[in-house]
What we know:
The chain is an alpha/beta fold. Helix content is 36%, strand content 20%. It has 17 helices and 20 strands. The strands form 4 sheets. Strands 5-4-3-2-1-14-15 form a 7-stranded mixed β-sheet. The chain has a 6-stranded mixed β-sheet with strand order 6-7-8-9-12-13, covered by helices on one side. It has a 5-stranded parallel β-sheet with strand order 18-17-16-19-20, sandwiched between helices.
Amino acid sequence: MSVKVALAQINVTVGDIQGNAQKMVDWGRRAHAAGARLLLTPELSLCGYPPEDLLLRPAFIEACDEALRWIAHELRDCEGLHLVVGHPHQQAGAAEQRSKSWAVPARFNAASVLAGGQVLQTYCKRELPNYQVFDERRYFVSGRDAGQAPVVFEVDGLRFGLTICEDAWFAEPARAAKAAGAQVLCVLNASPFHLGKVEEREQRMAERVADVGLPLLYSHLVGGQDEVVFDGASFALDARGQVAARAPMFEEALTMIEVGADGSVQGQVLPLPEMEAQAWAALVTGVRDYIGKNGFPGAIIGLSGGIDSALVLAIAVDALGADRVRTVMMPSPYTADISWIDARDMAERLGVRYDEKSIVPMFDAFNAGLADEFAGLPLDATEENIQARIRGTLLMALSNKFGAIVLTTGNKSEMATGYCTLYGDMAGGFAVIKDVAKTLVFRLANWKNQQPTRRADGSIGPVIPERIITRPPSAELRPDQKDQDSLPPYEVLDGILALYMEQDQSIADIIQAGYAPADVERVTRLIKINEYKRRQAPVGIRITHRAFGRDWRYPITSKFRA
């Protein structure tokens, strides 16, 4: 005996409840036509993930309830098909008392089984994550705490048990499902991507399979939502914990598998891409969905001739196409000739619109206007920041006039140390490489140039001019400026950043790891004093397990240093 199961790896949009519901109906019909008897959708896919404070609005929950019933009704003619939908669920008439003065409804992160035009059963998530980017205890009650029993349902004689995402990282929910009669575990997921997460996910699910001895089906979300991206890579493990099926990363897919009563699973196993390919796809997905789902007609990039803006441009073109990307080169008195030559060269290779607008007249006007105030004072970062802010103003003016969003070009190393200008190069709507350290910027640029890419003239070759990658990084805001005039070498800076910011190691531990005390003190001090800048930075794509965003919540005013 075996059952054909389909994993719906879909890209949904938060709040587009009817659009998401229609997608589930469409995919349900596709799966049924392909012979599937069970279709699994991802966690909270009916409303999109994470819905955040939309969950606090009664009308939002009511719309989800109505859409769930509509899906069941629309698929009533798909005889024999069972569809599992992830959605928010509010228990009628129940409330959880949080304090003596106020109460909230008993709201759950749920999954319902639909068949024959009816909603048959509803499972409520038991383990609610409240770390990194997760905030589920703000919104949901645990199904365990509410006394809800496991949900096991039968399809063609095979019994399937439901769990949702974090449930499968703990032993109890899977054991409870098995005790209730489950022969197969179904896991609905919306697990945000970071580098290394796919491998970690499969390993942890293999541990779960080893614990209960049941095959496991993992249906995962794909697409971008604000700063997080979901990678897909849905998979299935047989009862031995071996990967028996794996969907592609960063694209929608309907993955068909055969599940046997003996614990066997049969399907196609796609290979996992290399790390750089995963990072690139995550960044492209984040840009495409942020711009597409929010309705921007295109993107504008300040192209400097440096590696950061070159990388952002290459990502944007892969995400949107050359016709939706515009670049502006804004030379200052300190811009080297090779900068505009390389910027123009790259724009031509990619076939994007390229304009040059000198900021020299505006910079002179600012200096003249401030001459009385600054008389007798030396040039310093003030004049450097004026240049950056002129550029930011020009880009935002073009954005306002034509509707395209400004993509900022600051990387994680700069965001950490404040090597970026408020209302200057930080001005914009979306920070593409905000979570990409400078050393990874170089790796991704080199990786991209090694991929066979068709350029605007029809030739195949690298899209980033080699000199952009090999020349010493510089903001070009004063004569002969180099990044390392103000910062340690990026290999050192990024190493300290990874230990301090991503791994929460102390200053003493980092010095013990071999970094020079002066470098450690300098970098950690810069991280601390530039929190106020990061609070004002645009949202950006998260690709590491700790980014400057949802999972970095440090006070601006703080005296703690260790």
